[in-house]
Amino acid sequence: MRPRWLRTPAAGLRVLAEADSDDVFCVWRIAGRKQLTLRSRGLLLEATYLSHVLSATLDAQLQGGGGMSLAITLDDGVRLRLSAYEMQADMLRGVRPSARARETTRAGLMHLRALQALDGQHAGASHRDIAEALFGEDAVRMRWSADGELRAQVRHLLSRGRDFMQGGYLGLAGVNP
Q: Which helix (H) or strand (E) holds 59?
């Protein structure tokens, strides 16, 4: 999901009026909190339900109870967004998406630790204190040394956290800085 301040009105998904379609448009059957915003390219519908977000531009001829079809923008990243488009199409059809179980990935754990290390440094903690908070007292007692791998990990995490703070978080969000 893109940060709200960087969203473009043409979010990729467009809901078009289609007289011969079996899919019927009804804004009230879309689950979650809904918001309509008038933009230069048309009406933007945003709905948020649990951790799911629907963002679609509505056709000017689209009417409640009328047939609809969906269109997406074909570009280089469309394959990466297909599952999100399917979920959004289901939301438009009135299907309530289930809560996604968040998987802990190695990269996610690294990002979390980097931000925790940076918070520790800003609070005045030493590298050793940060290592104890992140890896546990036993690990630090057995593996800590001035030029050891735990100290190197802490330095790496602090560097990574500073990069996030200086705009690197935009890359995580999938936004070109």
A: none
Count of domains in the chain?
2
Does residue 39 belong to any structural domain of this protein? yes
> Do 51 and 130 share a domain, yes or no?
no
For residue 97, tell me if it sits in a domain. no
The pLDDT value recorded for residue 62 is: 86
Q: Give the bridge partners for 105, in sequence order.
A: none
Write out the DSSP string of 3-35.
Answer: -GGG--S--SEEEEE-TT-S-B--GGGS-SEEE
pTM above 0.90, yes or no: no
Strands (DSSP E) contained in the chain are 13-17, 33-39, 42-49, 52-58, 68-72
Query: In this structure, is residue 168 part of a structural domain?
Result: yes
CA–CA distances in Å: residue 54 to residues 82, 119, 174: 13, 33, 17
Please indicate, yes or no, whether residues 78 and 128 belong to a single structural domain of this protein: no
Q: Which domain holds residue 159?
A: 106-172
What's phi and psi for 67, nearest 5 deg?
-70, 150
CA angle 126/128/130 to nearest 5° reads 70
Q: What is the pLDDT of residues 96-133, one digit of tens each?
A: 887 665 667 888 888 889 999 999 999 999 999 999 99
Residue 158 in contact with residue 117, Cβ under 8 Å? yes
